[in-house]
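Quiz preparation item.
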């Protein structure tokens, strides 16, 4: 389906729960990206029931805030998408700072009508030890080989988002993996591709790997896949360090 001429080209959606320490930097970076790519766009921050100043900081930077009372990442992403006016949707974590090239590459792909969704491999914002570097390398290879876009930075057409019904709200984590799978299957039926870009890895905070809960969560998902349906097993994502 071709994008409309009247809507914004892209909507950037940021789910945020108690992110006052990083949200300003993220927004300023995304505003810079929109200026550089010269596309009509909007930034939407979804305040996922924060108890800090995330929403006030966001409004102070002139960005739209959507409130989602239920503390769940899938619902936050969906709440932002429901308010989005863009033909192309980008989901960016609150501690992630993409480059303009990330958006230009994705938009150029989706404008062809041959790509319905995708994402980018990642790099960390600071040097980490061998173990963490190995985890990131494995994650990046898995993204490419399995066509999985992490919620760190993923994108899709509004048409494909509606086609798959958004993110699965039965899960408290791994919603990005399930969304990728749904988009791949939907795209195959529509003769469209799902693409992982490794040419422009997106930069994200190394804090994800500085907390033992990250490793515990990954193990739980690997060993007990249905654990993602229970918030207690995904507690790492629902409290701020």
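Solution:
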């Amino acid at each position: 389906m071709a994008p409309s001429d009247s809507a914004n080209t892209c909507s950037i959606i940021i789910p945020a729960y108690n992110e006052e320490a990083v949200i300003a930097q993220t927004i300023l970076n995304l505003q810079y990206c929109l200026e550089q790519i010269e596309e009509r766009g909007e930034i939407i921050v979804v305040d996922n029931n924060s108890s800090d100043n995330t929403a006030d900081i966001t409004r102070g930077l002139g960005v739209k805030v959507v409130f989602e009372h239920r503390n769940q990442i899938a619902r936050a992403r969906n709440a932002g998408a429901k308010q989005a006016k863009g033909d192309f949707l980008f989901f960016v974590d609150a501690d992630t700072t993409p480059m303009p090239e990330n958006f230009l590459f994705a938009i150029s792909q989706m404008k062809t009508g041959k790509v319905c969704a995708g994402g980018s491999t990642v790099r960390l914002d600071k040097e980490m030890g061998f173990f963490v570097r190995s985890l990131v390398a494995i994650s990046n290879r898995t993204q490419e080989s399995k066509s999985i876009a992490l919620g760190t930075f993923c994108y899709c057409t509004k048409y494909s988002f509606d086609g798959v019904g958004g993110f699965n709200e039965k899960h408290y984590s791994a919603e990005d993996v399930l969304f990728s799978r749904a988009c791949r299957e939907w795209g195959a039926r529509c003769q469209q591709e799902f693409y992982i870009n490794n040419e422009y890895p997106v930069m994200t905070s190394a804090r994800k790997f500085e907390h033992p809960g990250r490793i515990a969560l990954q193990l739980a998902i690997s060993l007990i896949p249905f654990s993602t349906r229970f918030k207690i097993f995904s507690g790492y994502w629902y409290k701020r360090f």
